[in-house]
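User: Can you predict the 3D structure for this chain?
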Amino acid sequence: MARLRRRRSPDGRMSLGDHLRELRRRFVIAAAAIVVGSVLGWVKYDWLFAEIMAPLRKLAEERGGLVNINFGGITQPFTVQLQVAMFVGVIVASPVWLFQVWGFIVPGLTKREKRTAMAFVGAAVPLFLAGCFMATKVVPKAVEILIGFTPQGAANLPDAALYLTFVTRFILAFGLAFLLPVFLVGLNAAHILPGRVMLKGWRIAVILIFVFSAMMTPTPDAWTMLVLALPMVGLFYAAVGVSLLLDRRRARREPDWVNVPDDEASPL
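Assistant: Here is the predicted structure, written as structure tokens:
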């Protein structure tokens, strides 16, 4: 690790080999944090499983006990418990892996950029958790809509692993979607993505947001898609506004010749 840092140039440039070693180092740190967080998920599995099963139990009461999950093999209970534990690990370790992701995107951080990175994590973690929390409120409705297609009198016994994958993917999709504005503002603060470029591409951004929402919400109704897409659109415009303000502040601090286009003569 120390040898890697010594080879870095003062301006933060890195060779391809250094980038790969940096990626490996940050991946190991993030993976270790997720494993540690998974211990909590393993210990609290019974309570978590009961919460995840709550929508199905409610539907089972309404349909006369014909809705439940099915463990399709002798090893599947262990696999499902491991899956739930890893899911909890990803959420609990979110401050660590979010910081590692940002550190890899903007390597060779200066002291000022490190403060920006800490601000990034301070904003990203609450938004990620808020997205996950919103998803927990939407999941019961999504399950109800999908189970509603089951004909009356027929049993619906989804595979336990597939049901858990559906729920965890749904929650993580909301959490990751809420990280959009933080990454945009972070890239702007790192002088990578100007606010005017974001504003110019708002049409493409909105289309991509709705495509992402349609892909990550497996229910066929538009309501669930809009629950994810509309907050993302609002957060995107909030990120554009913050980025434009940051660009304006930087423009006031920098000399006039810094912001002159390459094809124009500077005042110097």
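Residues 179-257 form one domain. The mean pLDDT is 79.
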